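Hi R.,

Quick one: here's the Abasic site processing protein sequence you asked about.
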Amino acid sequence: MFMCNRYSLTAELSELTEDFRIDRVHVPYLRRYNIAPTQQIPIIQQIGEERCLNQQRWGLMPYWGKSSVNASLDTLGDKTYLRSMLTKKRCIVPCSGFYIWRQEGKSRSAWRAVHRRKSTFAMPGIYDLWLDSEKNEFPMCTLITRGSAFETEHRLPLILDEASIDVWLDPKETRTDVLYALLQSLPESEFRIYPVTPLIESVALETPDCIAELNPALSLVKI
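And here's the predicted structure, written out as tokens:
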């Protein structure tokens, strides 16, 4: 099954801080149109009494394998290190839309999924710290996903509502049954999907062209 491995975050900083009640911004912020694994991505976490915008590497490293970009909800409890992250190290990843590929015979097409009511939504993430040889800390995160998206083999990211965000970011909440109850899949009807340029497969493309709606015929690419 393919990972959820491309998404966008196109909100202005003022919108983001208001929508997610961010108290402090720790990193420079830019609108992003084609976010890919291993890149530094904006995340929101609770630090003390403040809700902060920070950044982390998307993908756990170095020895947890290629699937470390996503963690499946269905097997989250099977791995000790993931269970530990779930109870102690949680963040949310703000997202304006995620990308999927649809296979059609020998061609495939690129599509973008956006929430029908929310211009930016919260994907649940868990994180850890990688220590280099000099004990410098490098935070890294993975997205929690479940099932498949829109009759494709892509993982479907989960989405937290406002009340769930408050609980998810609360470091005092460590009960796994409470945390699992927050992680519910949304019906596909909550999303609108539309075709976009197949060039999003290249991480070199990072412009508003990534999110522009195309004629479906133009989104096809031969394989």
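Residues 163 and 182 are 9 Å apart (CA to CA).

Cheers,
M.
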